[in-house]
Write a structure and sequence with these properties.
Com_YlbF
């Protein structure tokens, strides 16, 4: 049975690769990578974003300056048409994966319940 589950997981991964959502994401990613300016802008934005997340995970509050810098970086990348489209597509892909995860974990949720069930 485990072999069958792994086969199904690989089929799911292949279906994901072939999906319109992934194909669009891949094309936009390649377009950004081919544009040196866009690639640097996105890389800088992701670095600032990652730095803030690391601070928060360590229980530290980002400074006003760091928050302001992150906001400026975000506004800059949002003004770049291709980067903005890429980020929108990343969000769509995240939703698809979240939906898939929810479907995959339904058997466990039905077995153990969900945290919402415990609150009621």
């Amino acid at each position: 049975m485990a072999e069958n589950l792994h086969d199904k997981a690989h089929e799911l991964a292949q279906a994901l690769r072939e999906s319109d959502e992934f194909q669009t994401l891949q094309a936009l990613h390649e377009e950004v990578e081919e544009d040196d300016v866009a690639s640097r802008m996105l890389s800088n934005f992701r670095k600032v974003q990652l730095d803030l997340q690391e601070k928060q995970m360590q229980g530290q509050q980002p400074s006003e300056e760091e928050i302001s810098q992150a906001q400026k970086q975000f506004e800059m990348v949002q003004q770049h048409e291709v980067i903005s489209k890429l980020m929108d597509q990343e969000q769509k892909m995240s939703t698809v994966i979240g939906d898939m995860n929810k479907i995959i974990t339904e058997p466990l949720e039905s077995l153990y319940g969900t945290p919402e069930d415990e609150d009621q």
